[in-house]
Write a structure and sequence with these properties.
There is one protein chain. By secondary structure, the protein is α+β, with helices and mostly antiparallel strands. The chain has 2 helices and 6 strands; from the N terminus they run ββαβαβββ. It has a 6-stranded antiparallel beta barrel. β4 and β5 form a beta hairpin. The model has no long low-confidence stretch (mean pLDDT about 90).
Length: about 100
């Protein structure tokens, strides 16, 4: 059940400036799986957790050039999105760290 709120951030260029598009969406926090954690850690990434969001919300948060969100704010902290994975037609899981 998605009862938390997070902010998806897309970064895009507008002329010579970098712009940010921020979109608040409902999400559900899950722990990073053991396999996913160790695979990411092996290449120097430190996944913290997984956020589950609606695929339509994820696409609506894209920048004007179609740039998918690359960062998320959850619990007052900003995280990078390492991986997005659509598990079914109603869920996209974001591995963040």
């Amino acid at each position: 059940m998605r009862n938390d709120v997070c902010t998806l951030i897309s970064i895009y260029t507008s002329g010579a400036k970098q712009e940010r598009k921020e979109t608040e969406v409902y999400c559900e926090k899950k722990s990073a799986g053991r396999t996913e954690y160790y695979a990411a850690y092996a290449v120097g990434l430190r996944p913290r957790f997984v956020l589950s969001v609606d695929p339509m919300d994820f696409e609506d948060a894209s920048g004007p050039g179609g740039e998918l969100p690359s960062m998320v704010v959850y619990g007052g902290k900003e995280y990078n999105i390492y991986r997005d994975y659509q598990t079914d037609e109603s869920t996209v899981e974001l591995t963040v760290g």
